[in-house]
Amino acid sequence: MELDAAKMIGAGLAVIGLGGVGAGIGNIFASLISSIARNPASRGQVFGLAMLGFALVEAVALYALLISFLILFT
Amino acid sequence: MACTKTTRNRATNKVANPLEQFTIKTLVPIQLGDVDASLTNSGLFMVLTVAAISLFLTLGMRQRSLVPGRWQSLAEISYEFIAGMIRDNVGSEGRKYFPFVFSLFMFILFANLIGLIPYAFTFTSHIAVTFAMALVVFLGVTVIAIARHGLHFFSFFLPSGVPMVMAPVLVPIEVLSYLSRPISLSIRLFANMMAGHTMMKVFAGFIIPLGILGGWAPLTVDVALTAFEFLVAFLQAYVFTVLTCLYLNDAIHLH
Predict the structure, then answer these.
(1) Residue B138 belongs to a domain
(2) How many CB atoms lie within 10 A of CB B251?
(3) What is the C-alpha to C-alpha distance for residues B241 and B85, in angstroms, rounded to an integer?
(4) Among the four B49, B94, B239, B250, which has the fewest Cβ within 10 Å?
(5) CATH classification of the domain holding A12
(6) How far apart are alpha carbons A58 and A41 in whole angstroms?
C-alpha cells in the first residue's frame, strides 16, 4: 500500500476515539444540569467542577487529534 | 467555477498551508557565543504579554478607591479569583504560592487572548513553551513535596487502605500517572491552542474561494469559532492553574 494512503487511513482510524469524548462531555453536562435542577443553590460550586471536567475530557479529544495529525503530517 | 478572485497563487498553484501561522520567525538576530538568543516573534509576544499584564494591573489599581471603578474592579476580580482558587484547592498553606500561581494564570490567559488578535502570534501553541511551564510546575511541586515530607513523600504512591498484595501492580501505575502530569498539562494547552487556530485558518481559507454567494457559510462558522476560542482561552488558563493548585495540594497534604 502507498505510504500516503496508509497515512490517510491511519489518521481516519485515530479520530474514532472522539466518539467516546462526545459521550463523556454529554455525560458531564447532563449531570451538571440535573444536579443544578435538584439543588439550584449549588450552582456556583458545581459549575467550576463541571468546567474542569469538561476541559479534562476535551484534552483527551485533543490527544486523539494530535496523534491523527502526527500520523497524517509526519 | 463562479469565483473570479481567488487567493491561490496562480504561478505555483499552491494552496495556503493553515499550519504556516505557527512558524517561528527571527526578528532581531542576537548571537551569544554558541547560543542563539535572537528575538523571535514568539519572544516578542511574550514581552508584549508581560507588558499588557503589568499595565492592566498597575494602571487598573492607580485610583485605589474603596469603591472600585470598572478597571480597578477587573484587576481586583482577577486577584480574588486566583486567591479564592488557592484557598479552595490548597488551603491556607498555599497562600505563599499565590504570586507564582497568579503569574502563571495571567501569563497563559493574556497569551491566549492576545493570540486571538488578527496577525498576532500565539506562543502557547508551541509545545516548547507549554512543556517548559508544565515542567516548572511539576518539578516545583515535586521539590516542595520532598522538602516538606522527605522520604515519606513516596508513600503518596501507595494509597492508604490498599492490601499489600495489590501493591506491585498499583505502585507502578501510580508512578506512571504521576509522571504523566507534565505531559498532559502541556499537551492540553498546546493542542487546544493549535487546533483552535488551525480550524479558524482552515475555514477562513474557504471564504474567498466560495465567492460572494457561498462565502457566508464559512464566515459564520469562523465567527462562531472565534467566540468559542475566547471561551477556550479562559478555560485553558483556568484548567492549567486549577491543576497546578491540585498538584500543590497533593504535594503539601499528600492526599
Answers:
(1) yes
(2) 23
(3) 9
(4) B250
(5) 1.20.20.10
(6) 27
Within 8 A by CB and 6+ apart from B235, the residues are A51, A54, A55
Q: How does the average pLDDT of chain B come out, rounded?
A: 90
Mean pLDDT computed over B165-181: 91
Task: Give the amino acid at A40.
Answer: P
The answer to whether the CB atoms of B239 and A73 lie below 8 A apart is no
Rounded to two decimals, the ipTM of the complex is 0.78
B22 within domain boundaries: no
Interchain contact, B19 vs A73, CB within 8 Å: yes
Q: What is the 3-state secondary structure (H, E, C) of A13-58?
A: HHHHHHHHHHHHHHHHHHHHHHHHHHCHHHHHHHHHHHHHHHHHHH
pLDDT tens digit sequence for B25-46: 999 998 888 898 899 999 999 9
CB contact under 8 A, A63 and B187: yes
Q: Considering the domain boundaries, does residue B3 fall inside one?
A: no
Residues belonging to chain B: 255
pLDDT band of B233, cuts 50, 70, 90: very high
Global model pTM greater than 0.90? no
pLDDT digits (tens, 9 = 90+) for B43-73: 999 999 999 999 999 999 998 888 988 999 9
For B191, the closest of A51, A62, A73 (CB atoms) is A62
> In this complex, do A73 and B235 lie within 8 Å of one another by their Cβ atoms?
no
